[in-house]
Automatic annotation (TrEMBL):
Alphabetic keyword roster: Isomerase, Magnesium, Metal-binding
Cofactor info, note text: Binds 2 magnesium ions per subunit.
Source organism of this protein record: Dyadobacter luticola
Swiss-Prot/TrEMBL GO biological process terms: carbohydrate metabolic process
A single GO molecular function term of this UniProt record: magnesium ion binding
Record-linked InterPro entries: B-phosphoglucomutase_hydrolase, Beta-PGM, HAD-like_sf, HAD-like_SPP, HAD-SF_hydro_IA, HAD_sf, PGP-like_dom2
Identification of the protein by name: Beta-phosphoglucomutase
């Protein structure tokens, strides 16, 4: 395997667990429309865009909205989600992540963020991790969502590193597919039974180090 010169990280579920805040905000929206969504149904929303998520929720509730209403509902969900995210602190960072990134930095590995979230900068500021990243590719720059490779391709371009020298850390199936489509080494963070297409799967960063990467 070629040497790793850059590591690209997804945000939600890899660096910080914002899934609970997404769920609370989406559930409030669903309740307002007269139905409920379960945690299991919420799993279907991982790693996809806000409007795609809204379409899935509306189909769960059997609710039909005009395009104008959809945009208004999506904006309201995002406003509520941001309110929740601003309450986050550095203590909300997932275990081992900060130590692992510091290790990468001291070994001159470039770091990039690749996330569909349009709120990545707000979240990274809240948890005091913005300074770790050499580039941020978020939903504000993307025209195509995961599993399209665009997010990681842009990250590698920004860093000036070839795809074969990039490792991607992802917790969602669509994200692993995106990394593989970009020609990168895909490391799944989560369950091997779910992230079957990853080159390597780790439970988290508590026991994973720079040495393991090589």
């Amino acid at each position: 395997m070629p040497s790793i010169k850059a590591c690209l990280f997804d945000l939600d579920g890899v660096i910080v667990d914002t899934a609970k805040y997404h769920y609370l905000a989406w559930r409030e929206l669903a309740n307002d429309l007269g139905f409920d969504i379960s945690l299991e149904q919420n799993e279907r929303l991982k790693g996809i865009s806000r409007m795609e998520s809204l379409e899935i929720i509306l189909s769960i509730g059997g609710v039909v909205l005009t395009e104008e209403e959809k945009l208004a509902r999506a904006a309201e969900k995002n406003r509520r989600y941001l309110e929740l995210c601003k309450q986050m602190t550095p203590g909300d960072t997932l275990p081992g992540v900060r130590r692992f990134m510091e290790e990468l930095k001291s070994n001159r590995i470039l770091l990039g963020l690749g996330s569909a979230s349009k709120n990545a900068t707000v979240i990274l500021n809240s948890i005091d991790m913005l300074h770790y990243f050499d580039t941020i590719v978020d939903g504000n720059r993307l025209t195509r969502g995961k599993p399209d490779p665009q997010v990681f391709q842009l990250g590698a371009e920004d860093l000036g590193v070839g795809a074969e020298h990039c490792a991607v850390f992802e917790d969602a199936v669509a994200g692993i597919q995106s990394a593989k489509a970009a020609g990168m080494f895909a490391i799944g963070v989560g369950a091997p039974s779910v992230l079957t297409e990853a080159d390597l799967v780790i439970p988290g960063f508590e026991t994973f180090s720079y040495t393991d990467l090589h």
